[in-house]
């Protein structure tokens, strides 16, 4: 009985890593659409989100089946509930990619990101995509050390967000209010993607060690 | 056995409504701090968030106890999992109130909201606080009709957010980039509070009827 349970649980984690892979693509495509003003690519991210939602529903269904049919207790129970939370967070990261893509689409045929903040936003996009890629690995390998290391990438994201504020609030900002608002919201979306990535990684730490890192709810 | 289960489940929902009451206070206090530039009140919201976090942990513990000891199936199982999700969303609404309070604190002794957008932001704050108040009632009374009606308040929030963009992107906006960025982020925070309120209400609909409103994951 327990063996069937752990096999099914493993399959849930494989599905979670698969969703994480889709989210990585969505973050990457949304960022590319943003930085190149590619309306078609932005559209693909926006319309493709429904597949992440569907994959989420499937994982939820599997988790409910596990809870119903196997009635796990103690750590097994907490692992299944952790999986349910992870899939919610992954889906939310997909939604945030859609928000990035929508800002991209809104400014076509222009580009939402003025040249002088481009390095900062590009770096945010790179850090976000990289964090999501690492989370997929962390889920598959249950890699606690990698999960803990992810916090450092999150610190880089916080620094980048502060830098973007410094840039858009500088005396010589010449791109007006609209571009500044776009940059501020983009910064918020990337920051949230990073926060969720850390939270998902922390849940893996919990699943493996039974310890709940305090930052899990940050 | 089932009776004990339903009594304990009811007590979880009473606790959820209690947390919702705390969130309502946090939203109201953060908004008041924002609109009056009250640093002390902002500080109280920020430091008080730990109590919402603690209350969340207690509800989670109770829900895990229910799952472990009673091994509910079918709708009972889904209701307990819904409660776990509701408490996460309520805690997140508390975090968003902290974000509002931090913008308030950042601008003291000034006020983050310029006079000409004040009516819009004031209205957002009122709608948000009102929505959270209604959610507490919806949880206690399992009021499906009220939960469905909450969608209309959310539409008002969306309209207010659009209005705030019109105002800060107007030709005659005279408050510079910093104030515009504050307003854009505040709009985002209030919008997310409203989204979570709708989502919590939709989970009540699910708990009562077994139907999952499609907007629950929006």
TrEMBL record, chains A, B:
Source species of the chain: Nocardioides marmotae
Gene for this chain: phoU
GO-annotated biological processes: intracellular phosphate ion homeostasis; negative regulation of phosphate metabolic process; phosphate ion transport
Keyword Aminoacyl-tRNA synthetase applies: no
Keyword Cytoplasm: yes
Assembly description: Homodimer.
GO CC term (a single one): cytoplasm
Protein's UniProt name: Phosphate-specific transport system accessory protein PhoU
Keywords carried by this UniProt record: Cytoplasm, Phosphate transport, Transport
Family stated for the protein in its record: Belongs to the PhoU family.
């Amino acid at each position: 009985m327990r063996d069937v349970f752990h096999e099914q649980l493993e399959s849930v984690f494989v599905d979670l890593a698969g969703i994480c892979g889709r989210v990585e693509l969505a973050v990457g495509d949304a960022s590319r659409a943003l930085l190149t003003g590619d309306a078609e690519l932005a559209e693909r991210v926006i319309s493709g989100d429904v597949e992440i939602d569907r994959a989420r529903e499937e994982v939820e269904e599997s988790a409910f089946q596990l809870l119903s049919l196997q009635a796990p207790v103690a750590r097994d129970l907490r692992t299944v509930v952790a999986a349910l939370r992870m899939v919610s967070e992954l889906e939310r990261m997909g939604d945030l990619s859609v928000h990035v893509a929508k800002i991209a689409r809104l400014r076509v045929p222009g580009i939402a990101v003025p040249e002088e903040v481009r390095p900062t936003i590009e770096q945010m996009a790179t850090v976000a995509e990289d964090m999501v890629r690492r989370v997929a690995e962390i889920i598959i390998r249950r890699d606690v050390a990698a999960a803990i290391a992810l916090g450092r990438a999150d610190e880089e994201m916080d620094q980048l967000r502060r830098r973007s504020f410094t840039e858009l609030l500088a005396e010589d900002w010449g791109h007006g209010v609209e571009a500044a608002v776009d940059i501020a919201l983009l910064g918020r979306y990337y920051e949230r993607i990073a926060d969720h990535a850390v939270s998902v990684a922390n849940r893996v730490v919990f699943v493996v060690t039974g310890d709940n890192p305090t930052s899990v709810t940050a």
